Amino acid sequence: MAVFPQRLDSPLAYEVARALLDGFNRHYRLFRAESAAAKQRFEAADWHAQQRAQRERIQFYDLRVREAVRRLETEFRAGEQPMDVWQQVKLHYIGLLVDHLQPELAETFFNSVTTKILHRTHFHNDFIFVRPAVSTEYIENDEPAAAPTYRSYYPTRESLVDTLVRIVDNMRLQRPFEDLPRDAQRVVAALGARLAPTRLRANFQIQVLSSLFYRNKGAYLVGKVINGFNELPFALPILHGEDGRLRIDACLIGEDDLLSLFSFARAYFMVDMEVPAAYVQFLRALMPRKPRAEIYSALGLAKQGKTLFYRDFLNHMRHSSDRFRIAPGIKGMVMLVFDLPSFPYVFKLIKDRFPAPKETTREDVQAKYLLVKQHDRVGRMADTLEYSEVAFPRARFEDELVEEIRRFAPSLLEISDRDGDGEEEVILKHLYIERRMIPLNIYLQEAFEALRAQPGTPEAQQALAQVERAVVEYGNAIKDLVAANIFPGDMLWKNFGVTRNGKVVFYDYDEIEYLTGCNFRAVPPPRCEEDEMAGEPWYFVGPRDVFPETFGPFLLGHPAVREVFMKHHADLLEPGFWQGHKERILSGDVLDVFPYERERRFPVH
């Protein structure tokens, strides 16, 4: 338990706290300005600038932390100040946050800056914010010019279309719609399928967040219909039509649709929020199954997402007793993967050495993970949380796992009582954390076993349907990655996972490349019989050459898989498919990848 001073008697402590908060305020001002500018980029259909801004904004936080560290060291010699002064700094800082509009983000910024200055390595500190000190409940800017977090509308059944038109008009998009009343009628018809048999109650209303959510080529209006005790979440994707005018493309309804829209496998949104905690609270009501950590990350506040994830993890550790183990499945050549069975995430370490034929380095692998973090993940690449110097209780690690780390990643392992509490810890110097999924090869294997064990039964038919869904989804995943200028590299089933709603997602990034950096070739015909029988290629293979025809033997060994794959995705085995997409991307096209099924789209005319 921290022992704080009873008197605030250090004038320097207040000045340090004020300078620290100035650093955070500058960060959030720049972050918010970049997010707000997404509206103008969307209106101008400047998709390349939108993607560039999404990549660059990810770097904002670390830049502002470094700026704050430099200022505190230069002006206050902050690293030389005693702990008594730093404890007073924290108390002053809490006082400064009482009426702040982003207190939870400012607390995290305090942690980031102070741990760099004082060289503390993990969250065993008496003076940082291990738990939030300032409430985020009911924060609202009461200034007359401030936009509310959300707006409420009170239509009758007869005025629903007019109300929808007014809701969209209030977003003040500076580009005309093709036919907004037509789109509003379509939305009301989609919502009406849920509302038709229901009596409208006294509290019938529509609540809509005041800012649009921008990502890639879309803008999303997010809200909920309230009627009696029922709440119906919805989101309206707004896109540019072929003639440049705007159109509402679909009506996403219910928690599952919104979970897909805000998926951990998609790029972060650009959204202008003065009070982010209020946005998170509103979104959490729409998606109660989604952790707050993931919502903060989806809004571009990835550092806050990491902070909340770590707090959730520590809480889970306190209320569980199982042990970390080597993760089930085929072991990778580059990453060592372990998990805690009761916790829905996996932990990944980069090995110190990689066996042939892998020709890569730790720095290369880290660069690939950063590429994925900054790229539009189009719902097909799992987001990762990256941590350094993470401490776990040694007693919670299986001995076999510790030996595995000692053998393959000894440079990342320290076992000690670094914090001096008498308990030995496993300290990992660098790791990635991802949402746990069922590896696709295991998912298929379970279906194959059911097919063999119960041929001709309803269970076998169900297993066959499972294979078909998985293979179709696998091909769709690759095609979505291709549209986003990503070549997965290693396309084996084991490098893909199945989410809880059946979506196939890629999660092994050490061989990932930009599609535009690859050379897709056809296999030259053999010159003679010896060529045909040779174990090695008879033709030259450059470092970036890819031969799609050769994918088949590695992927299509099972007849049921081959039949489905060739029916739906035979084009993936043709160089022309890949080369055609490469040429379109090089010509400047930004391809559409929708966070909902194509059949959900409203008719174009």
UniProtKB/TrEMBL annotation:
The residues that hold ATP are A327, P328, G329, I330, K331, G332, M333, K348
Catalyzed reactions per annotation: L-seryl-[isocitrate dehydrogenase] + ATP = O-phospho-L-seryl-[isocitrate dehydrogenase] + ADP + H(+)
Q: Which residues form the Isocitrate dehydrogenase kinase/phosphatase (AceK) regulatory domain?
A: 17-321
State the EC number(s). 2.7.11.5, 3.1.3.-
- What is the active site of this protein? D383
GO molecular-function annotation terms? [isocitrate dehydrogenase (NADP+)] kinase activity; hydrolase activity
Keyword Hydrolase assigned? yes
Subcellular localization, as worded in the UniProt entry:
Cytoplasm
List keywords of the entry alphabetically.
Answer: ATP-binding, Cytoplasm, Glyoxylate bypass, Hydrolase, Kinase, Nucleotide-binding, Protein phosphatase, Serine/threonine-protein kinase, Transferase, Tricarboxylic acid cycle
Query: What Pfam families does UniProt report for this protein, alphabetically?
Result: AceK_kinase (PF06315), AceK_regulatory (PF20423)
The superkingdom of the source organism is: Bacteria
Q: Which InterPro entries match?
A: AceK_kinase, AceK_regulatory, Isocitrate_DH_AceK
Question: To which protein family does this belong?
Answer: Belongs to the AceK family.
HAMAP family attached to this UniProt entry: AceK
* Protein name (record): Isocitrate dehydrogenase kinase/phosphatase
This protein's species is: Ramlibacter aquaticus
Q: What is the lineage of its organism?
A: Bacteria, Pseudomonadati, Pseudomonadota, Betaproteobacteria, Burkholderiales
